Structures are given as C-alpha cells and as structure tokens.
Amino acid sequence: DIAERKADAEKIERLAFYDPLTQLPNRRLMLERLNRALVGSTRHKGHCALLMIDIDNFKVLNDTLGHGVGDQLLLEVARRLQGCIRLGDTAARMGGDEFVVILEGLHSSTEAAAVARKIVDAAAQPMVVEDRPLHVTTSIGVAFQDQNRPSTTVPELLARADEALYDAKAAGRNTFHMA
C-alpha cells in the first residue's frame, strides 16, 4: 500500500512538472528553475542566460508528414538539445515546438552565444524519422542576465529572449540572436 502511494505520488509529480512526450521539464518547472538561476546569479555575482528555441517551419512538417513524425522530430530535437548543454543546465519544453534552455554559472555572454551556435548546428544535422530523411533548422533568441542588470525578473528575461527569437526568425532563420 505504501509502495503504491509512493508510485502514485511520483506519477503525479511527473505529470505536474514534466512534458509527457519529451520527459523534459515543462513550463512550470522551467519557471521555477529560471527564478532560481536569476537569484543564484545575483547572489554569487555570476551570469545566466535564457535561450528560447523554435523549430523553423515545424507546423508545415507536422501538418504534411503527420503528428507521429512531428512527435518523433520533437523527441530528436530534445535529445540533441540535451547533448549541447552541461550537467546542471536546464533544457525544457514550453509546448508545441518551443524549447527553452537555462544556462547557469556563465562568465560572459560569449559562452551563451557558443551554446546557441552549438544548438543551431546540432539541430541542422540530418536526421531520419520513420525512415524519412528530414532536415530541420532552429531559430534561437538569447537573453543574457549579468551584474549590470541585477534586478532582472523572470518575465523580463522571457520577454527579451522572445524578442531576440523573433529577430533571429526575421534574419532568415537557422540562426540565433542576442538580446
């Protein structure tokens, strides 16, 4: 009975904090971790960055090839994202084809740019989903929090990353832009 309750509690927590498809943290858990990162970077006089990632033209792929292929594509992008970040950083799925990465303990914005470039390059590598060769690209908006802006809030950092994401898309996609 106790084991069953424990299993139920773990299942409820998983449903509350993790994306059911990718098993990455969901928006709720990402917001908690982002807040923790901002507080930690202020306390330790460090830096953090928020990367907002969007799969270019995902809706077209999903609509033409089907949701099963779209789901497999999302899983592969999630796997590649995790391969581009350090242990302790957070990759999360916000919903749809939108992902977020939180980078902590940075020394400069150059480190955030290097991770963004690594993600753009990793996503652009050819992939095969259900025996179909696919080529996808990503656009990334990067918002960097440093000691020159110690009072940065979660909503402000999210808004800056979102604006940078749209700048990356306007610049032709398959790139990143720093806010």
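(the above was protein one; protein two follows)
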Amino acid sequence: GDAVRCVLTSINSEPVAEVSVGDCIRKGTPVRLAWNVAAIPNVKGPAALQAFCVQDYFRVKAAVVIVRGGAGTGKSWTRDRIIAELKRRKIFNIMCMAPTGLVAQSMPGGMWRGRPYTSQTVAWFVRHPPELGGLEYVKHLHVIVDEYTMVSSSDLDRLWTIALRLCPTARITLIGDHAQLWPVKGLPPWSSLKLKKAQREGTIATYRLMAQQRFGDCERMNTLIEALRARRLTTANGELYRVALKPPPATGSCRLIAATHALAKPANVCVHKALAARAGASSLTVFVSGSENPEHTLELCNGERVRVCANKYESKPGSGVTYT
C-alpha cells in the first residue's frame, strides 16, 4: 500500500533476508543507512561520532532528529555545535527547550524572527507560544529539546503541534538518554502519537553517541552512571555515598552529584571539606542567617555549587535581613 518500505543492509555481517550486498534497489525506494562511524578508516578517537553527527545533521532531510547516548558521550557538545552552526547559516528561528528550568539554563539561547529567544521550559512554551505578528507562518524553524526523555508525551505532542502551526516544515531535534532520566510527569515521550507517526513513516534520523569520554577510566563514576541507568538503586546509593566520603576525581559531575542524593546534608559537608582543602580554595563566602546558632551559618568555597530550593528573606527594622 502506501506504507514506507525500509531496506536494511549490513556491512561486515550477514545481509538481511531478500537483500544482499551488491543488489540493485528499485528507484524511489526509501533507504535507511546506519553504520559505526568509529570503524571508518583513518577516523580516530570518540569525538568522530560527535563531529559526524553535527555534519550529517545538515545533510539529511529528516523532519525529526534524535541524538541519544549515555552520560559523558558528548550530547551537550553536539547540541551546542548544531545550534552554533544554525546561527552561522543565518537560520532566524531556533527554539531551545528543556523539561526543567535548570536544564534550560544550561542551553544556549535561540532566535525568533531574527531576535534573541531565551531558552525555556516546554511547559512555559506550550502556555506562551511566540506570536507570528501578522505572518501566516515562518519559512524555517528548528526546535531543539534537550533531555527530551523527561518531557511527557502529551507535552511533546503539544509542543510539536505549536511548532508545525508556526512553520509547516519545522524540524524537531530531541536530545537525551532514554535509560538515564524519566519524565517529570505523565507518560514517556516515546508514547507520543506524533513521534510514533514519524517513526512509522520513516522521517526520523537517529544518532547514537557511544564513546564515553567525560569520566574516562574513573571506576567510581562509571559504576555510578551504570547503576543509575539500570535502576539499581542499592548500588547507586552506595556509589553516591562513596562520592561523598572520598576526595572526588577531577570531574565536576563527581563532585556535585551528591547534592541530589538522599544523604544530601552529610554528603555536602564531606564534599565541601574536600573542595576547601584544594589549592586555591582558600577564599570562602559565608552566609549568616541572623541566628546565633552556628548550624545556621553556611560556608561555601570557590568552585562549590548549590541548588537553592527556597530563597526567602525577612527585613526587620534594626535587625538586618534574615535568609531562609
């Protein structure tokens, strides 16, 4: 019927049924090609996968692009390079989306009709989509969603519908690790009707980044990430506790990941001590709550980061400012 036929070939392995290496494929038949870039002669190093992804992003015509891979495989680097290249090519409509405000802050800003368009959460975008300003639609639009596995299928479909209304040829790029993070709420994004339709019609290009670089041979971080991805909570808790108790290796994630752990207070105390003992960390910032209780005083050293869950203050005449 009208269904798209996908022809799969293999290199250095057995060919699939009815298709052999060297066979002629009938003109007009859609073909998907997939191969291991690292196996190409003269390609050295894991960065080849990222560079190839960025280059091929502008070669393929797929309406949906998925960039997936585990922690430390270069997804953020690839995302930033794609956005920078879109701007270099004078694409005036680039929207950068994220499931949470924290992720949105880590993304580059986009463009809307040639003007800066701040990266934002998907929830905010679906409630406050941009205005066309009298235009029927824009000619080009790229919507890039980081950590898309945390976006629910319903929100993804809403975002997609708005994007197509703004530009009928909008391109959706989804970046994330399907095994590491879960949706903030609702069903996972692969339940999306629009994503299923794109997969069924063969309008998806998928890039898998496999070479883990960030943690190198650090046994502790590799064990922790594998436990998080496999949902082995007992192992993950144990590794997080080890991160908190021992001086961390030279990776930012290893120093900071304990802050989101259930043992946040003792973990942060240990991490703070490790950071304060570093060379060049002698400068300290002290926050005083206004109370005489020493436990209400927070001391931070250079390079230390915290997540503020609540930031309230009360100003009283003659007594200064009290922070909670």
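Reviewer note on protein two: The chain has a mean pLDDT of 75.
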